[in-house]
Amino acid sequence: MSTIQRQIVWNIGFSVLISLAVATAFIMVFPLSSLGELWNQHFMDIPFVIFIPSFSIVLGILFGIISGVFWRRQLSDVEYSLNQLEQGRQARPEGKLAITEMQNIADRIDKIGKQMSEQAKLSQRLATEKVADQEVIIQEIISQERNRLARELHDSVSQQLFAASMMMSAINQMRDQTEETYEAKQLRMVEEMIHQSQLEMRALLLHLRPVALKNKSLKEGIEELLMELSQKVTMEIKWKVENFSLDKGIEDHLFRILQESVSNTLRHSKANILEVLLVKRENLVILRIVDDGIGFEVESMKAGSYGMQNMHERAVEVGGTLKVISLKNKGTRLEVKVPVMINGDGVND
């Protein structure tokens, strides 16, 4: 039964009871000689015995409709608020409700909605923090695993390659160099392959366990990296690195670009000389890496090289540019230029 129907039934019943009570009181005050007088008495040409019940029923229906519409509107406002609350929205009825109790219910709903909204914000923040903590843990696990692999490769495969290289070098030196036999050519090819494998292994170790700047300056980090490499590879490494301060974010990106470039040089260039330059001219930091290797096709390398794409993205992230020039059998030059900015006004540090 709807609200309006229920109100109509209640009001009809109430009106009928009132009319019966009034009629009973009237008869008691003014006694009738016989019940037939009720039929003989007329009001607006309607017998009194019919008029009273009919009038009561009509009046009950009228008041039932009015009160039913009123209560349905009050309940609809509360239902709307609950529906909005169920959908995760916070909404309260427009204006004040006419009934104090209904207004109290609306205020309670509004209070519950605010509490749910605060709890949702707290849950989302905790979820975000949990994901961030998980990312930190995952990165830490990855870093530890990379270091473990790097140690195992260095202690096993790298040492074995070094021993094999020394043995092949000694065998080739002991052979009669005047005889250019097929076996001698094969042995020299094996020695070259072992040498190249050593370079590949050192480049792989550089990727697995990159040197971090931590509390070092960019100059100190670059010199440490290049000095360590110069002791492990036969390639001649030269560098000129000026000492100046930069934001830590810029220093880290430039250092990672240098690591990526040096790794590519060790793996692919077959170079004899590697030169690194880091200078600051006015408001511009310049990092230049040059080798005399075999070179490559720049356009094809840009399209298919993850390393090149990574270096380009790092340069762009600090507002710089990366330019690569490479010629077949004449070497490669990679140059990064980063403007030094403070508060966006281009003033030097």
Give a quick account of the main beta sheet: strands, pairing sense, barrel closure. 5 strands, mixed
Per CATH, the class of the domain at 214-349 reads: Alpha Beta
Helix content: 55-70%
Oligomer: single chain
CATH superfamily of the domain at 214-349: Histidine kinase-like ATPase, C-terminal domain
Task: Using the 3D structure, state the CATH architecture of the domain at 214-349.
Answer: 2-Layer Sandwich
Mean pLDDT: 76
Strand order in the sheet with the most strands: 3-4-5-7-6
Inertia-based shape? rod-shaped
SS strand fraction:
5-15%
Supply Rg.
46 Å
Low-confidence stretches: 343-349
- Give the topology string: H per helix, E per strand: HHEEHHHHEHEEHHEE
Number of separate strands: 7
Number of helices: 9
Structural class: alpha+beta
Gap from first CA to last CA = 79 Å
- Enter the CATH topology name of the domain at 214-349: Heat Shock Protein 90
How would you describe what is shown here?
This protein has helices spanning 3-29, 36-40, 48-86, 100-174, 182-208, 218-230, 248-269, 298-304, 306-317, and strands at 42-43, 46-47, 236-241, 273-281, 284-291, 321-327, 331-339. The strands form two sheets. A five-stranded mixed sheet has the order 3-4-5-7-6. It has a two-stranded antiparallel sheet with strand order 1-2. The chain contains nine helices and seven strands, in the order ααββααααβαββααββ. Helix 4 packs antiparallel against helix 5 and helix 5 (182-208) runs antiparallel to helix 7 (248-269). Among the domains are: 3-91, no CATH class; 214-349, 2-Layer Sandwich (Heat Shock Protein 90), CATH 3.30.565. The protein is α+β, with helices and mostly antiparallel strands and 349 residues long.
